[in-house]
User: Fold these one by one.
Assistant:
Number 1:
Amino acid sequence: MVDLETGAYATDFEGADFDAIAAARDPALGIDIDPAEDIANIKQRARYAEVFLVRDNGRVNQIILPVYGAGLWSTMRGFIALETDANTIRGLRFYEHAETPGLGDQIDKPAWRSLWPGKQLYGDDPLPQIEVIRGHVDPASPGAVHQVDGISGATLTGRGVTNLVRYWTGPGLRRHPVKKV
Ligand SMILES: Cc1cc2nc3c(=O)[nH]c(=O)nc-3n(C[C@H](O)[C@H](O)[C@H](O)COP(=O)(O)O)c2cc1C
């Protein structure tokens, strides 16, 4: 468990007991997100997050972080897996959403998921650059390593994915959030 305000591990929790959805609304565990920083459009979140360090022969070789945010119709919840550089994406999967079958639901189909591995969150500055664009990525463009093809007919779902990944990997998480009352 990580305390998102300090970035330190939080020892008072057993991860398996932690319910991030309930905690977001719990006065002791949740905070209201400053609307100016709420790019994922979730309004509240837990102060803590359960993160996973996957080890291979004792060495961490993968970091898995929970991510969620608003799509067109639903809150899309999933996990992003990163290489140990905490920059290169291994994969992005959603386990819950209610985007339209045939349109926004492509976010969790193999074809679209396959576009993510190898993409990078950050460039030269600390703000995440990752973006689901409209149309196809031009591999020759300088931003290509941060770009993922859009889903035709589902630009809004794709924009939601951009925003939620940027929120959970961006500096908004660390800025003095307002304590819930
Ligand atoms: C019944 C219905 C369901 C839709 N479902 C989605 C959806 O799941 N995700 C999405 O981004 N757009 C959905 N749209 C389309 C949006 O209203 C919007 O037109 C679209 O996101 C624009 O993307 P485009 O510019 O790629 O066409 C739906 C439209 C209709 C009529």
Number 2:
Amino acid sequence: MSSSTMPVGTMPVGGIRPYDGVQHPAELVVRNARIHTGDPARPAASAVAITDGVFTAVGDDATVAPHIGPATRVVDALGRRVIPGLNDSHLHVIRGGLNYLLELRWDGVRSLRTALRMLREQAERTPTGQWVRVVGGWTGEQFAEKRLPTVSELNAAAPDTPVFVLHLYQSAILNRAALEAVGFTRDSPNPPGGEIVRDFAGNPTGVLLAAPAAGLLYSTLAKGPILAPEDQLGSTRHYLRELNRFGITSAIDAAGGFQNFPDNYAAVTELAERGELTVRIAYHLFPQTAGQELDDLRRWIGMVSPGDGDAWLRCNGAGENLAWSPADFENFAEPRPQLTARAREDLDAAARLLLDNGWGFRLHATYDETIRQDLDVFEKIAADGGFPDGTRWLFDHAETVSQSSLDRIKALGGAVSVQNRMMFQGRAFIDRYGAERAATAPPIRAMRDTGLLVAAGTDATRVSSYNPWLSLAWLVTGRTVGDTLLYPAENRVDRSTALEMYTSAGAQLTGEADVKGTITEGKYGDLAVLSADYFSVVDEDIDRIEALVTVAGGKVVYAAGDYENIAAPLPEISPAWSPVARFGGFQAATDVRRTASGARQARAFVDAAADSEEQRAWREGRGDFERVPQVPHQVGGALDPLDGCF
Ligand SMILES: [Zn+2]
């Protein structure tokens, strides 16, 4: 637009002058951007205007100029890449939010030495009666040392403070103080599907194993203190902002154990009422008690219906469990669990109840054996006329799903959602099933080639990290966090497809494709200005991308670097001893371009500990150099109870 068409006498804003007479000015304009809209009708743009929370102009400076009034905030993207806000289609965001400020996150930490140093510091600043807990988002393979911490290392780092470290759905490592706090002794029996590892005298060592079910790990974690209700609100807000930090503006909650409706949904509900959600959440409902699933579902059907809610918080059906007995645990360090005879009946009863009441659902299923059995149940219901066309339903995970099952899912109108769990558990999978089977676990391309809707996500926070860029990198490169190649090119997707799986696919899963998922006039004004160009960085740098500005509904919900003061500040972190107050969340590598003053990631977190004298001495003391010349054998896999370290 030439300057002669601009009104005179107004201050330039981001290089464009506002019109005096604009009728309904935008609240936000982003310009000078390389915008990937995701909309085939207009794939690229350089400027957008957002008015009343929705995109009102997508184009260039000339297109947005008539929307700029004196109060319009104009963000100059300085030529940076802009994408639609990301949507994690399988995130335990509600539970993650309730606990975020209680957790020390090892997500992104590159050495065990650093991880233990963080633990030591946090133990020192944790008041008596509280725990230090590291709950998922990491694996030994990401550390330079390529191993898990030992109980004795936890004892050394935290002699008096209970420490609970959850490693995937495989194991938990407790220090001495935590064992005392939870009351495990030589007389404590192993629960079904779990093992309390013992020493030669029969005393618990501090290691708990999912064998294969994670119930023991979770019920032990649940013995720790929780946040006060008012701190749960703050915790959720800080967690949502941490998601905004990576460009997330939507998530589909998968519910989960210890996430009761409506009690544990109170925080997000209150934030929604106050207009303080910064991630749009579609939630699911997950029966909590074996044997009472139908009672739960019946009660909820009377309380809420799929689609209820608004643009920020809405019900999207039941799941990811509909009943306990059909659930298979994705612990690849253990053999596949055998479902009991009840599984079929329980699923049948729950699914019929839901379908009869017009409810869709999502269903957790890791293995093809489970999926085949589930499909038998669904097909029988369909044959009875009880599975209406247009029911919105999907399988979650589906790592070993077969082509014939994909065809059957397609025939029943289902979808799938995949997560980067293999990025964290891939080594264990390869150890058990071999590299050839790992190459299509999950068969991402076959799912798409079958014509299924395939949405992407993380399954955070207890297995994978919530950082979406790890998952996008996994889709594109097919590699684990330890850089093991899982997938050949034939089972990977290109960057634009991966992004579509992380944006518009999620919008389709919640029936919101008409209002979000792409940067299109009339859709929600959700976008992210990225720290580096997703479409041109080398593969190795995809997982280092962050947002510099994230916008949800026209509001700046996260801003860093050049933009750092334009997002409204959050309330102080409470409690003040929260690990997040000291360390933040995901630990970015040092060379990520963060210029924010006081950025918590500014510390040099990469210690090059792999070759450190400390680590060498540890391995030598352990006898590694005599026994196993390579890496310690529990890397990313089973914690062998006979391992001398445990
Ligand atoms: Zn699941």
